[in-house]
Amino acid sequence: MLNEKIAKLINEQVNKELYSGYLYLDFANFYADEGLDGFAHWYEIQAQEERDHAMMMRRYLIDNGFRVTCDAIAKPDKKLKEMQDPLDAGYEHEQYVTSLINNIYSEAFALKDFKTMQFLDWFIKEQGEEEKNAEDLIKKFKMFGHDAKGLYALNQELGARVYTPSTTGPAM
Ligand code: FEO
Fold first, then answer.
1. Contact, 46 vs 31, CB < 8 A?
2. Which end of the chain is more exposed for a tag (fewer CB within 10 A), N or C?
3. Which of 2, 111, 100 is nearest to 53 (CA)?
């Protein structure tokens, strides 16, 4: 049986992951409106991955006998004006998500909940990748995004991203 405090934290994290997806959909809307369909596509896939994260956590709770609740998902609140704004906001958001996952992990550690620690291992690794991806996007944009040809090429590159459900992550 899962510890109630841990279960509640993971349930809250389900909501945060769905919010992340909602936030990235907002970024996709911004880029779609700017005519950067490749950037929009990249964030549409990112939104899908966030939903997957939520589903993995939901599954873990269900499989451990916890009744999952669906809470209200907050309205995306990042101010987006410049082309680089979603990229900066995305990096900042991923760092925040990392802190949330780390917090659940440390609570599980304190309670000797080794099963949850093992479950969270994948998310710890995933957060490392998500932060790196977000940081890489900023670097690329700084290098190529301020020249029409460079921006066109970057838009093409991001538009080629393919959604593939994780084969290494927890079940959904
Ligand atoms: Fe589910 Fe981008 O962290």
1. no
2. N
3. 100
